[in-house]
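Appendix B. Raw example, untouched.
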Amino acid sequence: MDVGTWLGSLGLDQYEPVFREKQIEAHALAELTEQELREIGVPLGHRLRMLRAIRELTGQTLIAVEPGTADAAMRDGAERRHMTVMFCELVGLGALTAKLDPEDTADLIRAAQGAIAAAVARFGGHVAKWVGDGATIYYGYPRAHEDGCGRRLKPARS
């Protein structure tokens, strides 16, 4: 996939020159963070559109492996690696949303998603999927780390 074509499909082809200047290619899209898009001059609305499209793009590229096919995959050059899968969500959101306007709830969820994405990126993780206020997070995929399990976010102490 060509980054320029991808940007054009989003109606954001005006960013193609900066993506080319910064050498952001298709394989690097899954690694982009909101902060990096901000640093290259993408305004908030367009950042959100790009990040949503990247999440959809990476969700489509996940490969389901049927039982018994792992040996064949290993012969075809695949690799085994340790990874940590984590799910996080806002605790008590249901009760809180009963007290908030829908717009305030949406703002809260967007702020939480931004904070989660920033923390996950800081520790070298990958947000694989957003489901409402929850996120499925991978450490060790798509980029392997020797200390992948130790990189995960620590739960807050009450």
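End of appendix B.
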